[in-house]
Amino acid sequence: MSHKKKIGFVIGTLSSGGAERVISTLSNSLIERFDITIITFAKSTPFYALDNRIKVIPCREKVNKPKSAFDSLKLNYGLVKRISKISKQEEIDILIGFITSANILTVLASRLNGIPSIISERNNPLVEDVPKLWEILRGLVYPKASILVLQTNGIKKLYEKKIKPDKIAILPNPISSGLSKLRNNSIKKEKIILSVGRLDKNKCHDELITAFYTINSNDWKVKIIGDGSKKQELTDLIKTYNLSENVEIISKVKDIDRYYNEASLFVFTSKTEGFPNALLEAMHFGLPCVSTDCNFGPSDLINDGENGFLIPVNDQKALTTKLSELIHNKDLQTKFSENAKQTTEQYMSEKVVAQWEALINKHIKTNLV
User: Fold this and answer.
1) Per-residue pLDDT, 275
2) Is 99 left (phi over 0), alpha (psi -120 to 50) or beta?
3) Fold of 178-346
């Protein structure tokens, strides 16, 4: 009979996002010392591999988008009750939520069950697109959590206005140990500029395409890994520039390590971030990077001119200049590559997971009054 403490992670689905990768990495790393259940709102096939000892329990087969405020309240009331019921059935000792809606439901369910809760916010609260109701609920509910986990000190400063500093912890994203093992220095680097991220207005992939067109380096190629609402628009831009032979958009990638290993450069053009997983992973694979200095995350990773380039957000000229400089300066590529790998050592899975484990053990013994 197991005497391990039991963790319940809560998230909408286990799709291909950054929060889902973090939950998968944490679950796989902690399963030796805890029993782990991942509670999802809707049934979904996990995108990232999970240890077969990890239970995944959906609240519902599927979740339809609410058509009214009443429908939304009804749906989320039902989800809270279901999360609470699953937690009781599985005898969960602590609930850990990821992303706003799951965080709020996690805190409410934990209060119903008299167990502690850790919530983890992944986005930049200044710009994220959260419905007004969830914004209000976040202000009311987040202070009731045992602790709020954030990824950068910059975001912590925003939350300190509403939540006591001693109820906030800063924990960066861990680099997946499985991904880390797939780094392969023996693979010959191709003349490929890589970018990874959702194809939406925030990621600004059009700026990379335009910079590449301006530089006119015909012996190089651009590969953009991602999917989203701007895919057709970006495809049309590639055709407009007559770059179909040199610029490729690839969606639904499982073997992301292959692209990190073969590429020579990485470009990150986001307007805003919570914490840039793709940039961290690219640096971990030793890719020289050009990144926007957006809030929040890139400046935590890149010391401009030492282990990469930081450029202003939406500065097309700076992107074109720095990308061209990197393409034509092999010594700079080598310098950035070596320094980038060194920078990411502190984000290795075992180091970040150890911090999470200490936090869980500290709060798992806390009984709510």
Assistant:
1) 85
2) left
3) Rossmann fold (3.40.50)
SS3 5: strand
pLDDT score of 80 = 96
- Architecture of the domain defined by 5-174+348-364: 3-Layer(aba) Sandwich (3.40)
| Residues 103, 109: Cα–Cα separation, whole Å | 10
Q: pTM value?
A: 0.81
Closest CA to 330 of 208, 209, 189: 189
Q: DSSP alpha helices (H): ranges in 65-128?
A: 69-89, 100-113
Q: Are 363 and 118 in contact (CB under 8 A)?
A: yes
Dist CA 92 CA 113 (whole Å): 9
Contact criterion met (CB below 8 Å) for 106 and 134: no
The residue whose two tokens read 């590449």 is 212
Check: CB of residue 119 under 8 Å from CB of residue 142: yes
Look at residue 243 in the predicted model and tell me its pLDDT. Answer: 96
CB 176 within 8 A of CB 21: yes
C-alpha 296/C-alpha 302 separation (Å) is 12
Where in the sequence of the chain do the CATH 3.40.50.2000 domains occur?
Answer: 5-174+348-364, 178-346
* Count of residues in the chain: 369
- What is the per-residue pLDDT for 334? 97
List, run by run, the mean pLDDT of 10-residue segments along the chain (369 residues).
86 88 93 97 91 96 81 88 97 95 95 96 68 80 94 85 90 87 93 96 96 92 96 97 96 92 98 89 97 92 97 97 97 97 93 95 68
Tokens at residue 285, please? 């694979």
Q: Quote the CA–CA distance of 246 and 248 in Å, as a whole number.
A: 7
